[in-house]
Design goal:
Elements (H helix, E strand, L loop, with lengths): L1 E7 L6 E6 L3 E4 L5 H10 L9 E3 L5 H4 L2 H7 L4 E3 L1 H6 L9 E3 L6 E3 L2 E7 L8 E7 L2 E6 L7 H7 L4 E5 L4 H5 L5 H8 L7 H13 L4 E5 L8 H15 L6 E4 L9 E2 L2
Helix pairs in contact: 8-9
Length: about 260
């Protein structure tokens, strides 16, 4: 058994569950501890079953619930040293577990590879998570797509990929100019078009199962993100096996069976 479930995904907070028969881990904890507990209970899980939390980077929408989660539960928190050093949340030293970006580490029967991504954080990373011969990859908060990221995503059985904004919506939004520049910058976020081009490339490499995540509430629409990707796929690639959905911002999606 190897499963993935997006609990929450968006610029307001991110948290996902990866599980096998023996292991359950959370990827990020960017909503309140209460919401994490409620999300897990919605899919028949308990916070007491969680073996670890692994953190992509220190921004609030990825770590908001960590401090209370640590206070109420003795759960190990995995991050690299730069991320820990920049967190505003107080994490007990005994619960901190350090990994090195671009080096494998293990949590029980999961083998995890944190790969570097371009984003305006201390040492941000995506994750490729392996169980037996299967692979789940999570790649959000990416300022621009790079070949080395494509290489890390290739061969995945499932990918959660950022599709943060639609450029015209962002241009016309109420966001201040500096924030718009940050989002559009080399260390900001992926647009719908960027996500579409990335998925088109990966489909040609044999990946067929995707979710779009980390959508902006103000600068995107789930239907628009989905449409942009599908139009790109139809223009450039043919795959009758392609599976694509959009992660929900406020409640858990259905669990996805990887193996």
């Amino acid at each position: 058994m190897f499963k993935f479930c997006n609990l929450y995904s968006g610029s307001s907070g991110n948290c996902s569950l990866v599980e096998t028969e023996n292991t359950k881990i959370l990827v990020d904890a960017g909503v309140t501890s209460k919401k994490i507990r409620e999300g897990l209970e919605t899919i028949g899980k308990s916070i007491n079953q969680i073996d670890a939390v692994i953190i992509t980077h220190e921004h609030s929408d990825h770590v908001k619930g960590l401090q209370v989660l640590c206070k109420n539960n003795n759960i190990p928190i995995y991050a690299n040293s730069h991320t820990f050093s920049m967190m505003k949340q107080v994490i007990p030293e005994e619960q901190k577990k350090y990994f090195n970006t671009n080096e494998y580490f293990e949590i029980k029967d999961l083998r995890i590879y944190p790969f570097s991504i371009p984003h305006d954080a201390a040492d941000p990373c995506g994750f490729s998570i392996y169980h037996d011969k299967n692979k789940i990859s999570i790649a959000t908060d990416i300022g621009h797509m790079e070949n080395k990221i494509i290489d890390n995503l290739a061969g995945s059985d499932y990918i959660l990929l950022e599709s943060n904004y639609e450029p015209n919506m962002l241009k016309c939004s109420r966001y201040p100019y500096q924030l718009k520049r940050r989002i559009l910058g080399e260390n900001g976020h992926l647009s719908n078009e960027d996500a579409a081009n990335t998925i088109s490339t990966l489909v040609k490499l044999g990946v067929s199962n995707f979710s779009l995540g980390h959508l902006s509430e103000e600068n995107n629409l789930p239907e628009l993100a989905y449409q942009t990707v599908m139009e790109e796929i139809m223009r450039n690639t043919y795959s009758d096996k392609l599976r694509l959905n959009v992660c929900d911002r406020y409640k858990p999606n259905d669990e996805i069976d990887i193996a």
